[in-house]
Amino acid sequence: MSERTTAILLIAVVALGAMTGVAAADGQFDVAVDTDADGTSTVTVIENDTAVENATVVVSVVDAENESYAGAGEYETDANGTVDLEAPEEDVTVEVTAAAGNDTAATTVELEAPDGLELDVADTDGEPVVTVTDNDTAVENATVNVTVADPANESYAGTGDYETDENGTVGLPAAEEDVTVDVTATYENESVSETVEIEAPDGLELDVENTDGEPIVTVTNDDEAAENASVTVELADDAGENASYAGTGDYETDENGTVDLPAAEEDVTVEITAEYENESVSTTADLTVGDEGDEADEQAFGQLVQEFIDGLENRDGGIGSAVSDFVTENNPGNAPDHAGGPGGPDEADDDDDENESDAPGNAPDHAGGPDGEDDGERGPPAHAGPGGDDADDDDADDEEDDADEDETENDADDEDETEDDEAEEDEAEAEDGDDDDDDEDETEDDDDDGESGPPDHAGGPGGN
Fold first, then answer.
1. pTM for this predicted structure
2. Which of 170, 178, 219, 259 allows an S-S link to 251, with CB 3.0 to 4.6 Å?
3. Torsion angle of the four alpha carbons 432, 433, 436, 442, in this order, in degrees rounded to the nearest 10
4. How far, in whole angstroms, is CA 417 from its chain's centroid?
5. 169: part of which helix (H) or strand (E)?
6. For residues 259, 265, 267 and 272, what is the CA-based torsion angle, rounded to 10 degrees?
7. What are phi and psi of 242, to 5 degrees?
8. Which domain of life does the UniProt lineage start with (predicted)?
9. Beta carbons within 10 angstroms of residue 259's beta carbon
10. Which string of b and e fits 431-464 if b means at least 16 CB within 10 Å?
11. Res 216: pLDDT
């Protein structure tokens, strides 16, 4: 054989060996585990991308001390190179080893317990909904049984047998009273049960607020605002023959389930009825005329007067005049009780004898009778004339008013007259300065005599 031929044969052998090595690498012996939704698993053994029949498969628990698995053991692959493993009852970690001839392969996998048949009850405070699933998938045509947990003391119209729809659900009626029920779902020889507390819904409710102002009617259904509910307001049967209310009539609730009513002009009892989705509810409300505003005004004015008094500084003669002026100018109500009628003291109530001396136009307590006579207890001042008509002596009158200011502190009308007299006096003094000077001279002469008594210009029994 020539050297050339030998060389060619050698190259061919090397090439064939190389091709065989590549094929072995690409199609190595392997084992894989796939888990389904129901918790079952499939073990597959392959070599060179071909299923290996009669391969040995060993399944063992990794942590045998703390976990267990009923599917642990030795298996043999079928014609498809597969082995089926059952679903675990609890999550477990297993090692799967496959062997065929001189080849072996192993893998570790987490097997999760399936959710299995499950039962859920929602909306237990309204119309309950039962949902049945198997491995998180809705179960159609599952059987659902509902019974009362304590039939001796409770009842429920929704007891009985049902069948789930394509969504795996069953609708139950709302409870008329709170009740405890047992719900059981059965599907493909499996069953699951749950005890549920079902609460009676609140249903249609009616509430009336602000009955002493502008009333607000609120309508709710199962604690949610009832929009477009019909509301009727009418006088109650015991409202009385002469009772009336401008808010009677028919209304419709807004998106908040409310209706606003006008304020009552007089105390009245009304009956309010709400209708919504073939249900109705009624209530009786006493509407009153609120007086909080008037009380608030009185309190506010009293506080205003107190703040004015607190702000006054000490002054000669007291604060009566200033307070009286403030009250007269700022009081939003009627004149004070001690004020006389429009025509003077003669028009005041005869029964108010105790306050007669305080009425405007009446003489102070120290003044004498109508004719200036002394009744033994009181008498005219020393400077007063016989008939009390000496109106020209304004200075003397002012002195008497200052002395009696505490007695007339709350008499707004007397203080107004005093202020008017003072204004007239100032004007008279400005115009007749000489006369005032003469009066002052006479007063000084009297002081020089060292005798006490009324001034010379005073008339009456004590004058000169």
1. 0.40
2. 259
3. -120
4. 57
5. strand 169-171
6. -20
7. -95, 5
8. Archaea
9. 23
10. eeeeeeeebeeeeeebeeeeeeebbebbbbeebe
11. 97
Cβ-contact 66, 114 below 8 angstroms: no
Q: What angle do CA 292, 298, 301 make, to 5 degrees?
A: 135
pLDDT > 70? residue 9: no
Q: Give how far Cα 177 sits from Cα of 6, 133, 153, 221, Å.
A: 103, 29, 12, 16
Rg over alpha carbons for the chain, rounded to the nearest Å, is 55
Sign of CA dihedral 246, 249, 252, 258: positive
CATH 2.60.40.10 residue ranges for the chain: 117-198, 204-290
Q: What is the DSSP letter of 341?
A: B
d(CA 278, CA 332): 54
pLDDT greater at residue 17 or residue 99: 99
Query: What b/e sequence results for 204-239 when a residue is b if at least 16 CB atoms lie within 10 Å of its CB, and e otherwise?
Result: bbbebeebebebebbbbbeeeebeebbbebeebeeb
Query: Nearest CA to 215 among 182, 245, 243?
Result: 245
Q: How far apart are CA 424 and CA 442, in angstroms?
A: 22
Tokens of 301: 């004015």
204-290 maps to which CATH number?
2.60.40.10
Q: What is the pLDDT of residues 110-125, one digit of tens each?
A: 999 888 899 999 999 8
**CATH class of the 3-111 domain in this structure:** mainly beta
d(CA 163, CA 142): 6
For 288, the 3-state DSSP assignment is: coil
